[in-house]
Write a structure and sequence with these properties.
single chain, mainly alpha, ABC2_TM, Nod_factor_ABC_transporter, antibiotic resistance, transmembrane
Length: about 250
Amino acid sequence: MSAYSALTTAGYRAQVRDKTTVFFTFAFPLIFLVVFGLVFRGRSVEESGFSYLSYTAAGVLSWGVANAAVFGIGFTLMQWRSDDILRMIRLSPAPLTAVIGSRYVLALGVGLVQSVLFIGVAMLPGFDLVPDSRWPLLIPVMILGITTFLLLGVIIGSIADTPESVAGIANFLMLPMAFLSGSFFPLDAMPDWLQKVSMVLPLRYLNDAVSAALTGRGDLTDIGWGSLGLVVFAVVFGAVAARTFRWTKSS
């Protein structure tokens, strides 16, 4: 517990010390919300009758939280390995679970603040998001989503050795996934074959579950299937992360 607490405290201090990263972590999803809110204001998706905001708000929130989880752990593991911090931790009594667990707590905290801030802005006049009565289910859904994408970030941070490679791999995965999973564009308006492709992407399941819980665009079945999909991807990513994790550049 002492190692876990020390790593969590050190990680928190390092995170809040980087003001630029903190700003863009929380501002980036809000920028997309404002842009989409202005562009699609008052418009609805003909196939469903729901407003574009019900799609974009939930989708952008999902993408923002997932993106923060991936980049947060990915850059940290790469940097700690490059600076030999992971090697020193390995020589200490601290287990690997303390390393990942400390970052997990920080990722949950960031995701919570992101969600509260984002939903608060989306409820302002001009955006007029009205959370569905099932909004409390958003909490376990977000925890599952952060868990899944944090494990994806562990994989990226384990195979990448430079900041450029972390950014390149993460963006290569997260940006196309955002478009193909319906974060920025309603899946209902996409061709059937693209909707089928999205079924193999973890962000699709997070989007579906968040949309059903936050805006009511779906029912409890959508939340259940979305959560189950995230659990499956978390298990797969966890297994891969355990095989690819490196304490040093060579092992």
